[in-house]
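Hi there. Long-time user, first ticket. I'm pasting a complex I've been working with (about 575 residues overall). I'd like to know whether the download I got is complete or cut off, because the file seemed smaller than I expected. Thanks.
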Amino acid sequence: MPALMTQSLREYRRTLIGWTVGISAFLSLYMGIYGNIKKSPEVYGPAALAKFPGALRDLMGGLADITSGAGYLQSVVYQLFVPMLFIACAWGLGNRAIAQPEESGLLELTVTLPIDRVRVLLQRFTAAVIGLLAAAAATYGVALAIATSVGMGVSAARILAAHTGVFLLALFFGTLTLAIGAATGRRGLASAVTATWVVTGYAVVTVGQSVSAISWLKWVSPFYYYLDGKPIYQGVPVGDYLVLVGATAVLLLTAALAFDRRDVGV
Amino acid sequence: MNGMTAVVEAEGLTKFYGRRRGLEDLDLTIQPGEVFGYLGPNGSGKTTTIRLLLDVIRPTRGRVTVLGSDPGDAAVRARVGYLPGELALAGRERAGQYLRFLGDARGGVAQARIDELAERLEADLSVPMGKLSKGNKQKVGLIQAFMHRPEFLILDEPTSGLDPLVQQEFLAMVREVRADGRTVLMSSHVLAEVEHVSDRVGIVRSGRLVAVEEVAALREKAVRRVELHFDAPVPAEAFEGLPGVRDLRVAGASVTCTIDGRPDALIKAAARFTVVHLVSAEPDLEEIFLTYYSGEEERHARADDAESA
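Hi, the file is complete. Here it is re-exported in full:
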């Protein structure tokens, strides 16, 4: 492995361990609760859910059928919370790759090493992908173990399909943060654009779906390509996931070209 | 020149940050084996020049080569050592670990070499980088700049934050580099810091290189202040009109003056009386230099006026 990639992984290590522990704790807690729901479905059945305001139910992806294992996983775990936690982790990595060390002056020596700019960016990116993949693999293991122990009745392949989607979605937003940081060197700007796209992107595919004037916006929401295929129920939506992969590749290319041309640390 | 490739060759090198001038029309050649002192106040363009040489920033116009290559050629940077003016080191990582990474990225540096430099500069490499004092950060910066024995060392304000003993050790390291036939560009805002190791010095001000001079030539131009005390009052006429003697003041038994070049005439005139005390101040090169380049600036200002007229 190139020295810069190893070094980048060392830099990301602490934050990655933190997020992996946090997401695992979240999974243990929320998936553990399913044990209670399974035992007393009448408390959490449709009648109980009807008490939630409609908009809130929309925001949670409809909250249909949370008493089944698949329904619970899709609505409570993979709808909002796990994707958002992973996106936050990837957003942090995206900033750590270029903009954050550039603003603190740490990138100055890195770009004067005998490594050309495009390689600097690609090696920082690859280290982040490896880190995010490790966090996804570890949390998939946790999710699978708990799903089995509480008897969710969802196959390992379906959980993997959802987890893969979370990884690709987070990777997209992490690469977006990286690209804006690489093009401008501004961490605040990169964070603001990413946060805005995350929040509006999620809103248009949930509450926005009932508003016809903005429902077309779902096409530019990465969440659409993750949620629409319902991976917990239907397995990997290959086409949708490829859209995420392709969009990420475009962002990465943009990041590399922009960073190669730019003055660093001015 | 003698078939040797210049280490730095800049022609019309210019950098604007938006409309703000960072550096304008720099023409500079640095030859192999030379130690070049690059002087100027903060914000004058020293760091801009250095960052252009390392491809951290790109010129607005003009051209520059480093060791015969375009600075954008990554391979050439393995032959360069760089100490940034504002060195940032942070985090929980130990300084030693970070140095090993930099060494690996530059093609490998023996641990013994890192340890040897750490010992010379008395740097503790087991400290997490975020906890290093300013002086210790600077030592780590110097170690990484010197450790791979680069052909060309670019040091931006290398002595800032170093205590006097470490400064002496650093200057010894620079002399060793020169003795090896390698090249150094070091910036400073005071001449005194670089005059003892530099072969040539250049002064940059408001983005323009206003003077380049050999340190030896500067010494010859040096004006020296001399004070003589005698055992009895001396006649002023005995010292008037001596070649090279200026600002003469004779008061009772003491004579003060400044001399250009050789002190011979003054010494011979003084020898006729009984000298009880002689004080000769080290010439202040900086003062000469400053007078010299403030004159240059005036000329520039006049030229600018003429242009706009």
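A couple of notes from our side: The radius of gyration of chain B is 24 Å. Chain B has nine helices and 13 strands.
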